[in-house]
Specification:
The structure holds two protein chains of two kinds. By secondary structure, chain A is mainly α. Chain A is 79% helix and 0% strand. Chain B is flat, with a radius of gyration of 24 Å. Chain B is mainly α. Chain B contains ten helices and no strands. In chain B, α4 packs across α6. Classes of the chains: A mainly alpha, B mainly alpha.
C-alpha cells in the first residue's frame, strides 16, 4: 500500500491515534509529577516507615517490566474485584512506573545542592521552611529540567504499552498492529507512527533545552 | 536508591526533645498505617478467594520452575544477544557521531534520534508485522532481539558519547602532539578511558534491555512471560502467576541495578542513563 492510499484509508485513524498518544502522555505526565513529588517528600522525611515505603515504591516500580505491570492492572485486578477502563489502566501503569524514575530525578536534583549550602543557610539563621523554600527547591528544580524533559519523552514512549490491551481509540503503536493484521500496509504504516513519536519527542526536547538554558545555574 | 550518604540526612538540624517526640509519634502512626494498608491488600486477596492454595501450590513443584527457567533462559539469550549487538552498534554510532565528516555525523544523529524517539514496542511490530510482508522470513528470536538491540544501541551511543566527552581534553592533545592521527587518538587513547568510565552505565542499561525482552510474547518467542501464559492456561491462575513473574523480573533487575551501583562506587564513575543524557 502506498503512503497516499494508506492516508486515504486510515488518515483519520492516525490523527486520532496521535491525539490519543498525546492525551495519554499529558495526563500521565501531570500525575507522574504529582506522585513523584509526594514520593520524594516521603523519601526525605524524617519518618522511618514512610521513608522505607517510598524507597520500596521506587525500587519496585523502576525495576518492574512495563507489560507485566499493565497486564496485572488490566487482566489481574478484576480477580480482586477491581475492574478499570483500559484508558485508566494505561495511565495508572505509566504513572506508577515513570514516577519512580521522576522521584529519582528529584533526589538527584536535591543531591546536587552542596551540604555546605545548607550549613551556610542554617548559620544565617534561616528556618527549615525557609531553607527548603529559598535554597533547596529553586536549585533542585532548575537542575531537573533536562531529566524531566527526558521523563516526558519516556512517558510518551511508555504509553505504547497501551497497544497490549483493547484501548479504544487506539494510540500510535496499537494502530500499526491494527492496520497490519488486517491488510498489508507495508513500511509506510510503521513510518507514519514512528514519525509521530519522533517529531513529538524532538519538539519536547527543543522546549526542554530552551527552558534549561534559561534556568540552569552554571557551576 | 541512593545508598551513599545523601543530602537527605543533612536536611534537618538535630531535632530537639519536642520534635523528637513528634517524630516518634508520627513514626508509630505511619507504621500502623502502612501495616493496615498491607493487611487490607492481603484481605482483598482473601475475600476474592485468590489465596486459595490451588492458585499458589503449583509454584512449590520443581517442574513449574523448570518450565519457567526454560523461559528465563530464552529471556537471557535475547537480553545478552541484544546487549552485545547494541554495544557494538552503539560504539559504531558514537564513532560516527564524533567523526570529522559532516555526512557521517548527520547519519549517526538521525539514526540515534530516531531510535531514541520510537517506543521499542513499535519497532517490535515493525519486525513482526511489516518485514514479513516483504517476503523476508525471520526466526522469532530475531524478531524480538533485533528491535531491542536497535533501541538499546541508540541510547548506548549517547552513553558512550557522554563517556568520551568526560575524558580530559589534555589526553587528546597529548596524543595529537605526539603525531598520532586524530582517529587513532580517538580509538587508542580516548575510547579505552571512556569505556572504563561508562561500564556502570552499560550495566544499568542492561535493565532496560531485560525489560524490553518481556515484549517477546508479542512475537510468540518462548521467553519467561510467554511460558507464564502457558502456566496460566494450565492452572487457571492468572493473578498469582503474573504476580510471581513480575516479582522475578523485579528481582533480576534489582540485582543488575545493584551491580551497576556497586561498579559505579568502585570506579567512581557516575551512572549515565536515558534520563540524564541530553534530550533528542
Amino acid at each position: 500500500m502506498g503512503v497516499l492510499e494508506l492516508l486515504a484509508a486510515y488518515g483519520g485513524n492516525y490523527l486520532v491515534a496521535l491525539l490519543t498518544t498525546w492525551e495519554l502522555t499529558l495526563i500521565s505526565f501531570v500525575l507522574t509529577m504529582v506522585v513523584a513529588l509526594v514520593v520524594t517528600v516521603l523519601r526525605v522525611s524524617p519518618i522511618k516507615p514512610l521513608r522505607l515505603l517510598a524507597d520500596g515504591y521506587v525500587q519496585l516500580f523502576r525495576n518492574i517490566a512495563g507489560v507485566s505491570l499493565l497486564i496485572i492492572v488490566y487482566y489481574a485486578l478484576p480477580y480482586l474485584g477491581l475492574t478499570l477502563k483500559p484508558f485508566t489502566c494505561v495511565i495508572i501503569t505509566v504513572v506508577l512506573i515513570v514516577s519512580a524514575f521522576g522521584s529519582e530525578n528529584f533526589m538527584t536534583g536535591i543531591n546536587t545542592i552542596g551540604i555546605g549550602q545548607l550549613e551556610a543557610a542554617r548559620s544565617l539563621g534561616l528556618s527549615f521552611t525557609q531553607i527548603i523554600h529559598l535554597v533547596v527547591v529553586p536549585q533542585a528544580l532548575r537542575s531537573t529540567v533536562l531529566p524531566m524533559t527526558n521523563l516526558l519523552i519516556a512517558v510518551m514512549l511508555t504509553t505504547a504499552l497501551a497497544s497490549q490491551i483493547p484501548l479504544i481509540p487506539q494510540e500510535l503503536t496499537g494502530l500499526v498492529s491494527f492496520i497490519n493484521t488486517r491488510s498489508t500496509g507495508g513500511i509506510a504504516t510503521f513510518m507514519i507512527s514512528a514519525l509521530g513519536y519522533v517529531l513529538s519527542a524532538l519538539a519536547i526536547g527543543q522546549v526542554g533545552n530552551r527552558l534549561d538554558k534559561k534556568l540552569r545555574i552554571l557551576r | 536508591m541512593s545508598a551513599e550518604p545523601s543530602i537527605r540526612d543533612y536536611l534537618y538540624e538535630e531535632p530537639g526533645p519536642k520534635t523528637r517526640r513528634a517524630i516518634r509519634i508520627a513514626t508509630v502512626v505511619s507504621a500502623v498505617l502502612v501495616a493496615v494498608l498491607l493487611i487490607a491488600m492481603c484481605r482483598q486477596f482473601a475475600v476474592a478467594g485468590q489465596l486459595d492454595p490451588k492458585y499458589w501450590s503449583f509454584f512449590l513443584s520443581l517442574s513449574t520452575w523448570r518450565f519457567l527457567g526454560m523461559g528465563l533462559v530464552g529471556t537471557l539469550e535475547v537480553a545478552l544477544t541484544a546487549g552485545v549487538i547494541s554495544l557494538v552498534l552503539g560504539a559504531l554510532l558514537m564513532f560516527m557521531r564524533l567523526s570529522q565528516y559532516v555526512f557521517l555525523r548527520g547519519i549517526a544523529r538521525v539514526i540515534t534520534e530516531f531510535f531514541r524517539g520510537v517506543p521499542s514496542l513499535l519497532l517490535i511490530y515493525f519486525f513482526f508485522l511489516v518485514i514479513p510482508q516483504y517476503g523476508i522470513k525471520m526466526p522469532t528470536f530475531w524478531m524480538i532481539t533485533a528491535p531491542v538491540a536497535l533501541a538499546a544501541s541508540a541510547v548506548l551511543a549517547e552513553v558512550f558519547r557522554a563517556g568520551m566527552q568526560a575524558v580530559p581534553q589534555g589526553q587528546r592533545e597529548a596524543g595529537l602532539s605526539l603525531g598520532m592521527r586524530p582517529f587513532a587518538v580517538t580509538l587508542k587513547i580516548v575510547f579505552p578511558q571512556a569505556l572504563r568510565m561508562v561500564i556502570p552505565s552499560l550495566i544499568s542499561q542492561l535493565v532496560v534491555v531485560v525489560k524490553d525482552t518481556t515484549l517477546a510474547y508479542v512475537v510468540s518467542f518462548p521467553d519467561m512471560l510467554q511460558n507464564a501464559r502457558v502456566l496460566i492456561a494450565n492452572y487457571d491462575a492468572l493473578l498469582s502467576t503474573y504476580i510471581v513473574i513480575a516479582a522475578v523480573y523485579v528481582l533480576i533487575n534489582y540485582a543488575v541495578n545493584y551491580v551497576a551501583r556497586y561498579a559505579s562506587r568502585r570506579m567512581g564513575a557516575k551512572i549515565v542513563s536515558a534520563s540524564t543524557i541530553d534530550p533528542v
